[in-house]
Automatic annotation (TrEMBL), chain A:
It catalyses: (2R,3S)-3-isopropylmalate = (2S)-2-isopropylmalate; citrate = D-threo-isocitrate. Belongs to the aconitase/IPM isomerase family. LeuC type 1 subfamily. This is 3-isopropylmalate dehydratase large subunit. Keywords: 4Fe-4S, Amino-acid biosynthesis, Branched-chain amino acid biosynthesis, Iron, Iron-sulfur, Leucine biosynthesis, Lyase, Metal-binding. Its cofactor is [4Fe-4S] cluster. It comes from Marinococcus halophilus. NCBIfam families: leuC (TIGR00170), PRK05478.1 (NF004016), PRK12466.1 (NF009116). Binds 1 [4Fe-4S] cluster per subunit.
UniProtKB/TrEMBL annotation, chain B:
PANTHER family: 3-ISOPROPYLMALATE DEHYDRATASE SMALL SUBUNIT (PTHR43345:SF5), 3-ISOPROPYLMALATE DEHYDRATASE SMALL SUBUNIT 2-RELATED-RELATED (PTHR43345). Pfam families: Aconitase_C. InterPro entries: 3-IsopropMal_deHydase_ssu, Aconitase/3IPM_dehydase_swvl, AconitaseA/IPMdHydase_ssu_swvl, IPMI_Swivel, LeuD. Catalyzes the isomerization between 2-isopropylmalate and 3-isopropylmalate, via the formation of 2-isopropylmaleate. GO terms for molecular function: 3-isopropylmalate dehydratase activity. Residues 1-123 form the Aconitase A/isopropylmalate dehydratase small subunit swivel domain. It catalyses: (2R,3S)-3-isopropylmalate = (2S)-2-isopropylmalate. It comes from the Bacteria. This is 3-isopropylmalate dehydratase small subunit. GO terms for biological process: L-leucine biosynthetic process. It comes from Marinococcus halophilus. Its EC number is 4.2.1.33.
Length: 471, 196
């Protein structure tokens, strides 16, 4: 048989109907639902008298609107209505919901893997663009709009045209202190904010194989920031070890059988992709974005570019517009940029490993004067685990606020946002204009880099911290 | 959804690349549980100044863009969040057609599902349209059946590509779920075969 990529394997496996020249009707193995993009879909079902076809393959949580302080009492009436609506819809249509009181509540892309719902070979969708996160397990996972949410609820399928495939090869070993976030920010900075448009990405190479599951999730999470609906990593022993013992994962002999199936999924030696790009892992530095899209990033020892650095008229204009919004002078050293806020959270970087990495740097230090820093764990489980390890104390003693889980300041739909004109070092995924609050200025970084910025008040090279600490 | 066959209308020119859905409809307006009424919030942070007044320097507020139903935009339009509120807001505001060199995949799908035609044209043709439509009323006719876009007086004419399936959906205004449910037997057979 001709060698195949994991993308081809999962695709062929899930085609319910495949006619030449038409999109295929694809079966969906797991549909995750949250409160913002689902109310109109459930309403559509009600209006047409349709049930949810497979409530057992559907799982809901509430995350975008949830306050991270006093989460039980939502004061914003419209937010509360959206939360209540999801609760009622799940009850009416028989969908399991990790509601605000559940110990399993959290950001949809954090709890899917945590519960073992996310598994290799599955097709996974959610009305949220960061669904690409689940690709870290070797699943084909992508974000959909609300009309498609309704379509999946009603039919458990989606019409999809076969995607083009792209290998994103990260060669060599990462340097010490360089993280998964720096890999993905480097990839997007190098190849552009829409290089993945129309493709499913597969991340390969030594640097990727060496990552933990949580780090792989950070990489796949931001595939959408490269324009790709989905990005994935072939599963391996790291994947299977992570999944073992989780609630929705089979046990005993059934687990071993699953692992045998999962092993077959990995891309075959010699399989061909439509496109291939390569980046040297050992050259990647800790990254900081300076602009208003995720490709506008540079290494910690870099400087803010000049509009004239743009490769064409459009790019020159984009740089100029971004610098105006960010209130940055061209030529400014990244290490000279001061921030007023530090946000450690989001579906990109709020897992236990992220909190541990940040805590290593925070331990024994204080948040710099004038900085508001907060930690928003990705789920209630992450929060609990961190508290068991005493990480909450490390953060609190340094002057961080320690919150409940939710999407929080990544997009500021709940009460957490960055005030106009202020600057935030954020572990989230989007530095768009107004994303963290109207007029807010976002710099995307890894958890370690965010921790460094919290202590020094400006960006620092976290690889050198042992030399410069307590300045 | 409403069928779209031939559309004639005024244009609005948005000369910005990578316009993301956070700009098209900011997050504070995503809390409604209805599909309707989002037009008033379209491009909110760009359209309105902090005091709530319309910002006359924003392209959609130019007198020439009044009643525009065709939006001419730059590369990677609709990137970022999958929020379908973006096409809902564009449609509610009055747009039926968008013309751009490239779109984000999810946004493109969301448009088609809501009866908005996203036309892809080569960059030089889009920039020509931008020049023609800048600061003045400029009407275009978009003929989906024949995949053509043209103006009356400047001599612009172009053909565009669209997936035949999406074209059929838009021309007929079909409800996709009804179509899929015709394949109920195939879905059931699949579920039996792979034991999901």
């Amino acid at each position: 048989m001709k060698p195949r990529t994991i993308i081809d394997k999962i695709w062929n496996e899930h085609a319910v109907r495949a006619e030449a020249g038409k999109p295929n009707l694809m079966y969906v193995d797991l549909h995750m639902v949250h409160e913002v993009t689902s109310p109109q879909a459930f309403e559509g079902l009600r209006l047409s008298g349709r049930p949810v076809r497979r409530p057992d393959l559907t799982f809901a949580t509430m995350d975008h609107n949830v306050p991270t302080l006093n989460r039980e009492s939502i004061t914003d009436a419209i937010s509360k209505k959206q939360i209540d609506t999801l609760f009622d819809n799940c009850k009416e249509f028989g969908v399991e919901l990790a509601d605000i009181h559940s110990p399993n509540n959290g950001i949809v892309h954090i709890i899917g893997p945590e519960l073992g719902l996310t598994q290799p070979g599955k097709t996974i969708v959610c009305g949220d663009s960061h669904t690409s996160t689940h690709g870290a397990f070797g699943a084909l996972a992508f974000g959909i709009g609300t009309s498609e949410v309704e379509h999946v609820l009603a039919t458990q399928t989606l019409w999809q045209s076969p995607p083009k495939t792209m290998e994103v090869h990260v060669d060599g070993r990462l340097g010490t202190g360089v993280t998964a976030k720096d890999i993905i920010l480097s990839i997007i900075a190098k190849f552009g904010v829409d290089f993945g448009s129309g493709y499913v990405l597969e991340y390969t190479g030594e640097a990727i194989r060496g990552l933990t599951m949580e780090e792989r999730m950070t990489i796949c999470n931001m595939s959408i920031e490269a324009g790709a609906r989905a990005g994935l990593i072939s599963p391996d022993q790291v994947t299977f070890d992570y999944l073992k013992g989780r609630r929705f994962v089979p046990e005993g002999a059934a687990f071993d059988e699953k692992v045998n199936q999962w092993r077959q999924l990995a891309t075959d030696e010699g399989a061909e992709y439509d496109e291939r790009v390569v980046i040297a892992g050992d050259e990647i530095e800790p990254m900081v974005t300076w602009g208003t899209n995720p490709s506008q990033g540079v290494g910690i020892h870099g400087t803010v570019p000049y509009p004239e650095d743009g490769r064409n008229a459009t790019e020159k204009k984009v740089i100029k517009t971004s610098l105006d919004y960010m209130a940055l002078e061209p030529g400014t050293k990244i290490t000279d940029i001061h921030v007023q806020h530090v946000f450690l959270g989001s579906c990109t970087n709020a897992r236990i490993g992220d909190l541990r990495e940040a805590a290593k740097i925070i331990r024994g230090n204080k948040v710099a004067e004038g900085i508001r820093a907060m930690v928003v764990p990705g789920s209630q489980q992450v929060k609990l685990q961190a508290e068991e390890e005493g990480l909450d104390q490390v953060f609190k003693e340094a002057g961080f606020e320690w919150r409940d889980s939710g999407c929080s300041m990544c997009l500021g739909m709940n009460p957490d946002f960055v005030p106009e004109g202020e600057r935030c070092a954020s572990t989230s995924n989007r530095n768009f204009e107004g994303r963290q609050g109207k007029g807010a200025r976002t710099h995307l970084v890894s958890p370690a880099m965010a921790a460094g910025a919290a202590i020094y008040g400006h960006f620092v090279d976290v690889r050198n911290l042992d030399k410069t600490v307590s300045s | 959804m409403e069928a779209l066959t031939v559309h004639e209308g005024n244009t609005a020119v948005l000369e910005r690349a990578n316009v993301d859905t956070d700009q098209i409809i900011p997050k504070q307006f995503l809390k409604r549980v209805e599909r309707t009424g989002f037009g008033q919030f379209l491009f909110f942070d760009w359209r309105f100044k902090s005091d709530g007044e319309e910002d006359p320097s924003f392209e959609l507020n130019y007198p020439s863009a009044v009643n525009a139903s065709i939006l001419i935009a730059d590369h990677n339009f609709g990137s970022g969040s999958s929020r379908e509120h973006a096409p809902w807001a564009l449609q509610d505001y009055g747009f039926r057609v968008i013309v751009a060199p490239s779109y984000s995949d999810i946004f493109y799908n969301n448009c088609v599902k809501n009866g908005i035609l996203p036309v892809r044209l080569p960059e030089n043709q889009v920039y020509e349209l931008m020049q023609n439509g800048k600061n003045r009323e400029y009407h275009l006719t978009v003929d989906l059946q024949n995949q053509q876009i043209s103006d009356k007086n400047e001599g612009f004419q172009a053909t565009f590509e669209i997936d035949p399936y999406w074209k059929e959906m838009l021309l007929n205004g079909w409800d996709e779920i009804s179509i899929t449910l015709q394949y109920e037997e195939d879905i059931e057979a699949y579920e039996k075969r792979v034991k999901v």
